[in-house]
Amino acid sequence: MSTPDDNLLCLINDAKLKFNQYAETQTNFQAPQAHISIESETNDTTKVHIDVEYNGIQYHFESVEEKDINNIYQYLNSQHSVRAKYASGNTPSLKDTTARIHTLINRFKDKNSRLYLYSGFTVCDSQTDMFLGCANLGSGSEPGTSEMAFLNRQDCWSHPIDITLTNTLADMKTTNKKIYSGIGTVEVCTLLQYGARLKQDGYTIDGHPLKSIVATARLDNEGSWKSCAKAGMTLYDVGVVDHYGSKIRYQLQKIM
Ligand SMILES: CC(C)(COP(=O)(O)OP(=O)(O)OC[C@H]1O[C@@H](n2cnc3c(N)ncnc32)[C@H](O)[C@@H]1OP(=O)(O)O)[C@@H](O)C(=O)NCCC(=O)NCCS
After folding, report:
1. What are 153-184's pLDDT values in tens digits?
2. Which residues contact ligand 1 via a Cβ below 6 A?
3. What are the φ and ψ backbone dihedral angles of 49, each rounded to 5 degrees?
4. Spatial contact of 121 and 136, defined as CB atoms under 8 Å apart
5. Which CATH number is 211's domain given?
6. What is the span of the domain harbouring residue 207?
């Protein structure tokens, strides 16, 4: 008779196989090239702009600012569907969102911050300036590691879960509106290239040279782990990550 431990082991082995089989099909994937500019402003803030094109869409990443709080709250943090498979699955309040954005803004200001420049970006359509989502780097659990995360409004995912939004996608196809499928892939590729640039320019993470960028993704968050696999991240573990709750997650990395 199989025990719960056997079942768990089986689930983990199947998940590893699924990831590695998918990753195998992506070895010839050409990552989009991010154009990164890191500029010191007179008001002591460092501004980072990144431009990247993928599947015919031009994306613009920009270091977060106070003015972004409303979009981040309205389209991402207040939306259960967007947050459901992210971290612990909670939807933070406007107050918590504001505090978090202030923390990220400070990492572009305070050169003594242990995470100086390891911070967050808004992601927009360069042509229309439409807010699409946000992507960040932060500290990882091991010295010299940085963890990435990304969140996007649901109407630009390649597989939206909400029926009404699926209809919206069909409408968009017939009315020739833009379809942003691929944004997860763009964000992972861009954050990896930004991390490489920080390392090359000598920016340490919590006092350590950047060793690797890591990400976690729930097994049922296919868009998330596939985006990481396409960008060349590899699997180093499958299991529960205590601070993200009880769901089993892929743990992925890219050595820098
Ligand atoms: C995860 C997320 C970024 C994916 O965005 P996306 O734009 O759909 O991602 P991509 O289009 O780049 O997808 C990458 C791959 O995953 C596939 N994919 C995406 N969603 C999928 C799904 N629900 N089921 C199966 N495959 C899926 C895509 O088809 C693509 O694979 P392919 O090129 O082999 O066809 C987006 O859904 C999101 O913001 N979710 C909410 C926040 C979140 O969960 N963040 C991740 C945790 S850090």
Report:
1. 998 998 877 645 555 555 555 444 567 879 99
2. 82, 85-86, 133, 149-152, 157-159, 181-185, 217, 221-224, 226-227, 230
3. -120, 140
4. yes
5. 3.40.630.30
6. 4-255
